[in-house]
């Protein structure tokens, strides 16, 4: 039986949005020192549950009992003051303020004149960050830090306040493995201090590494709860998806078959000697039709930059890109797109979707000039393209008129894929195509990439998910500090080999990279 | 029970806000019409309607361009200066005939628009700063070209300002025609869709291969051309070129019309019908107060209240 001293008890929570029952009679209990995994597909209700707990939304029904008292937070600030801290998936800090000021935002130390005590703030900030293994100049503006370091600042901030519950919504999506380890040690320390942690992640390894208990949500309802150790991975996935165990086992954890047959002789894309100051040093990649080439490497190794340089979005100082033998004008995204290159950007929310426009307008955005005559849009042709892709990619939206910003991450990604597939590209550059999307949509995207390669497209795949990279790619080009350090072919494409390639070329830190970041 | 009732309140509030945001400006116009029919003598006369419409027409024309610029998450402060410039240039070149004068006006306006657009699109200056430069500089040039008010005696210009078709003044026809044209461009053309996408998310538009710079430049040129049209029409109605005061504070009237009409300053959405209604609302409000002999300061206070209401209603969007 559960000990009575629960820190949080949620009963019968319901929340309805127009047309969607986001939460339906959900219960959740947290005890001090418990690390609780909250999982479910996108749209299962995880984000809504978190937002209700932290005062962003008001529930339609149900009770929240926090430390023995029924509470109803009107604002996130109230929840935070009461002792519920949240770390969001996207860093929720102020980029222009210094690291220290971000850390103490809303509870700045004051001197006896009531003015901000910067000396104390900076000193304490350094100590707090140092405790998490982050050594940075705390007076620098936050935005000059990498995303991973920013996430650590957010973490330090959440932990430093007098929290009884810390909610982490996909905290590792932008962290490097080393930083993930730091995060885990912080979580363990929180647990030892008797603080309850709610951990939301799509990465199963992480869940099993740190979580004690689990709640699985599906379609707004709680479909499972209990000890995580009692549930093996496949059962977890099948509970989450609502599919039969055998089915999952048969299909494996990723949807890649890993078998593409590169057709044709010449490469469909050839990038030679791409260089960009401080970012890329002489990177060359070639892709044949029907081939999926993976780009391996750690965070900041130049994978995203390579994709952007190929697509003309990153200015290069030298290098040449040819598509099907035709050289490309450098530095022009429209020219690259006309030649048949499509880039699915890493940062889906700010560089991919146009959130205020509809599904229909997002899908037709790039292809619009082709569906127009004398600048006039042919609505019938737009409708036919949109209908085709909504059906083919199984995009779930209430109608093509729904705003893309309101869709789940997986569906947003499908809308972006549809935007590019409508262009009939020759080469697809996929930068983290499955990051932050639910298991079901992930599988669909992976399957689609397979099919597209089978149809003769050249695909460049960037993924921090090693399993995905290995199973999805025919060949992996490994980058480090903006340069190619190796290539894995055929049987060499294994996690082990990839790690070795990355590690084998890992001198302490090469001087060029260091100088570059300082300059 | 009481608690349940309390909880439904925010939802209703959101719904009311949403309704206000969508239809508030039309409701405001309707309300003012009804009030005036009741309390203002001779309000329903054709003559009165014509006066009101002729007065509001230049504001509508300028606001159309402003709505496009605001749709790209920009703002154009130079529209008043462009009106003054149009007035000066018209006076200078009217000797060659109306049509040549109009062509030169268009050239000047396009020049200002290009400068605005280039500063925003290529140099990366914030729109408010770029157009502020042209606002100050443009009126300066207008005054250099024509230092003081000059009466214009040109029959074709005069007929443009006061002529009519079946009792409907040219001014109104031109404003209505332009409004329909701009609305069509926003809804049905590639350019219109690209404009909205750029306003909503410029990085995404860029990566989707949209001609971002071209669209921005065209938007600022179109805005300047529309302001020039308004400047010429106002000059034609006055039968005098007045670069000192023509178009003063017009940028603010236009922005007010756009915002009251439900186009958010954050870009990505353009509401043309609302913009027209917004201009009409402000016009009716001003006229009502003037007709009842309230001092002009009251008009400004009333405008301020309308703007605050519009901004409040707009704030309710975005949130759930």
How would you summarize this macromolecular structure in one to three sentences?
The complex is a heterodimer of chains A (519) and B (320). With 519 residues, chain A is of the alpha/beta class.
SSE inventory with pairings:
The complex is a heterodimer of chains A (519) and B (320).
Chain A: E1 8-17, E2 20-30, E3 35-39, H1 46-53, E4 61-66, E5 69-71, H2 76-82, E6 84-87, H3 99-103, H4 118-130, H5 147-160, E7 165-169, H6 177-192, E8 196-200, H7 204-210, E9 213-218, E10 221-227, H8 233-241, H9 245-251, E11 269-276, E12 280-287, E13 292-296, H10 303-310, E14 318-323, E15 326-327, H11 333-339, E16 341-344, H12 348-352, H13 359-364, E17 372-373, E18 376-377, H14 379-392, H15 409-421, E19 427-431, H16 439-454, E20 458-462, H17 466-472, E21 475-480, E22 483-489, H18 495-504, H19 511-518
Parallel strand pairs in A: 3-8, 3-9, 6-7, 7-8, 13-20, 13-21, 16-19, 19-20
Antiparallel strand pairs in A: 1-2, 1-4, 4-5, 9-10, 11-12, 11-14, 14-15, 17-18, 21-22
Chain B: H1 2-39, H2 46-71, H3 79-93, H4 98-123, H5 127-145, E1 150-151, H6 155-162, E2 164-165, E3 168-169, H7 170-188, H8 190-200, H9 202-207, H10 212-238, E4 240-241, H11 250-260, H12 272-291, H13 296-316
Antiparallel strand pairs in B: 1-4, 2-3
Helix pairs in contact in B: 1-12, 1-13, 2-7, 2-10, 2-11, 2-12, 3-4, 3-5, 3-10, 4-5, 4-10, 6-10, 7-8, 8-10, 11-12, 12-13
């Amino acid at each position: 039986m559960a000990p009575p001293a629960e820190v949080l008890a949620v009963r019968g929570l319901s929340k309805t949005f127009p047309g969607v029952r986001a939460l339906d009679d959900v219960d959740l209990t947290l005890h001090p020192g418990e690390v609780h995994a909250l999982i479910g597909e996108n749209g299962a209700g995880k984000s809504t549950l978190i937002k209700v707990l932290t005062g962003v939304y008001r529930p339609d029904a149900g009770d929240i009992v926090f430390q023995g008292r029924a509470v109803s937070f009107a604002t996130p600030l109230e929840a935070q003051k009461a002792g519920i801290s949240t770390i969001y998936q996207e860093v929720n800090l102020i980029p222009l303020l210094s690291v220290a000021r971000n850390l103490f935002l809303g509870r700045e130390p004051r001197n006896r004149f009531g003015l901000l005590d910067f000396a104390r703030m900076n000193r304490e900030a350094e100590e707090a960050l140092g405790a998490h293994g982050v050594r940075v100049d705390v007076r620098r503006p936050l935005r000059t830090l990498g995303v991973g370091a920013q996430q650590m600042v957010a973490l330090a901030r959440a932990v430093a306040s007098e929290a009884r519950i810390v909610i982490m919504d996909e905290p590792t999506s932008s962290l490097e493995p080393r930083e993930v380890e730091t995060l885990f040690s912080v979580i363990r320390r929180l647990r030892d201090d008797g603080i309850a942690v709610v951990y939301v992640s799509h990465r199963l390894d992480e869940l099993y590494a740190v979580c004690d208990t689990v709640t699985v949500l599906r379609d707004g309802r709680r479909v499972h709860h209990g000890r995580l150790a009692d549930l093996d991975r496949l059962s977890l996935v099948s509970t989450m998806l609502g599919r039969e165990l055998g089915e999952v086992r048969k299909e494996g954890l990723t949807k890649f078959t890993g078998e593409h047959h590169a057709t044709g002789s010449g490469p469909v894309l050839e990038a030679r000697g791409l260089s960009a100051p401080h970012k890329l040093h002489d990177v060359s990649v070639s892709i044949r039709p029907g081939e999926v080439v993976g780009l391996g490497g750690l965070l900041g190794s130049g994978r995203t930059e390579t994709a952007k340089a190929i697509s003309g979005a990153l200015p290069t100082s030298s290098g040449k890109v040819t598509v099907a033998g035709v050289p490309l004008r450098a530095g022009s995204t429209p020219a690259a797109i006309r030649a048949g290159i499509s880039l699915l950007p890493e940062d889906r929310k700010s560089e991919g979707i146009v959130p205020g426009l509809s599904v229909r307008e997002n899908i037709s955005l790039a292809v619009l000039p082709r569906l127009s005559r004398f600048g006039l849009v042919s609505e019938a042709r737009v409708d036919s393209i949109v209908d085709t892709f909504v059906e083919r990619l199984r995009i779930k939206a209430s109608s093509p008129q729904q705003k893309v910003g309101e869709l789940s991450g997986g569906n947003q990604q499908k809308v972006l894929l549809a935007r590019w597939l409508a262009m009939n590209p020759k080469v697809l550059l996929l930068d983290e195509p499955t990051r932050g999307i639910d298991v079901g949509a992930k599988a669909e995207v992976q399957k689609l990439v397979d099919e597209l390669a089978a149809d003769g497209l050249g695909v460049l795949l960037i993924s921090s998910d090693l399993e995905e990279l290995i199973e999805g790619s025919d060949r992996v080009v490994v980058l480090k500090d903006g340069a190619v350090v190796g290539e894995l072919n055929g049987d060499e494409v294994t996690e082990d080999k990839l790690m070795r390639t990355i590690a084998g070329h890992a001198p302490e830190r090469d001087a060029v990279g260091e100088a570059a970041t300082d300059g | 029970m009481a608690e349940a009732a309390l909880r439904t309140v925010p939802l209703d509030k959101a719904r009311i806000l949403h309704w206000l945001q969508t239809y508030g400006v039309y409701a405001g116009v309707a309300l003012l019409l009804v009030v005036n029919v009741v309390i203002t003598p001779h309000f329903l006369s054709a003559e009165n309607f014509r006066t009101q419409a002729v007065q509001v027409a230049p504001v509508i024309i300028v606001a159309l361009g402003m709505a496009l610029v605001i749709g790209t998450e920009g703002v154009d402060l130079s529209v008043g200066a462009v009106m003054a410039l149009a007035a000066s240039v018209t006076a200078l070149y009217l000797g060659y005939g109306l049509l040549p004068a109009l062509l030169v006006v268009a050239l000047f306006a396009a020049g200002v628009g290009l400068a605005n657009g280039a500063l925003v699109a290529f140099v990366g200056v914030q729109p408010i700063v770029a157009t502020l430069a042209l606002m100050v500089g443009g009126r300066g040039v207008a005054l250099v070209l024509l230092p003081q008010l000059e009466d214009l005696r040109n029959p074709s210009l005069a007929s443009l300002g006061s002529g009519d078709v079946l009792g409907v003044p040219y001014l109104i026809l031109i404003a209505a025609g332009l409004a329909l044209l701009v609305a069509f461009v926003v809804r049905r053309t590639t350019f219109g869709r690209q404009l909205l996408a750029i306003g909503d998310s410029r990085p995404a538009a860029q990566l989707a291969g949209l001609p971002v710079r071209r669209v921005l430049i065209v938007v600022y040129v179109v805005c300047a051309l529309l302001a020039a049209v308004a400047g010429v029409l106002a000059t034609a109605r006055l039968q005098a070129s007045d670069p000192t005061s023509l178009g003063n504070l017009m940028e603010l009237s236009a922005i007010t019309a756009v915002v009251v009409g439900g186009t958010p300053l954050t870009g990505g959405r353009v509401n043309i019908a609302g913009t027209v209604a917004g201009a009409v609302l402000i016009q009716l409000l001003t006229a009502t107060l003037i007709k009842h002999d309230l001092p002009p300061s009251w008009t400004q206070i009333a405008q301020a209240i309308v703007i605050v209401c519009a901004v409040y209603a707009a704030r309710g969007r975005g949130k759930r």
